[in-house]
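Reopening closed ticket. The problem is back. First fold of the pair:
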Amino acid sequence: MSTEDRAKATAKNVEGKAQEAMGDLTGNTEDQAKGKAKQAEAEGRHTIENAKDEIKKAID
């Protein structure tokens, strides 16, 4: 996984956590849901990139 891809996924996760927290504070369920969705997207990206890393290791 490239450092850039990992950083983007981490940034998306942090953004999602912040949005969810803001939704928690304000009681805005839409922000809570969007924040959780961003976190899930980031987790998916990490999973895909980790799989790519494992495949590359197996090939090398």
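Second fold of the pair, where the issue appears:
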Amino acid sequence: MNAADNDHEQRIMKLEELAAHQARTIDELSTELANQWKTVDQMQKTLSRLTERFSALEEASLEAPAITKPPHY
């Protein structure tokens, strides 16, 4: 083997290492993105439930109480 062949092999090894590191990073990012998507989905559902509850409470508080005379009149 001459120096040029050795240089090519080293460059190929470096490229293979880089590709392996990038593949691992992509997998880690993909997993993290999936976890964050689950969290966002749960938060959206919670927000929707809270919005419905708030709207119901708001409607209930806006209803005017019936005008009645106190029992002592």
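Update: turned out to be a display glitch only; the data is intact. Helices lie at 3-62. The chain has a mean pLDDT of 90. Please close again.
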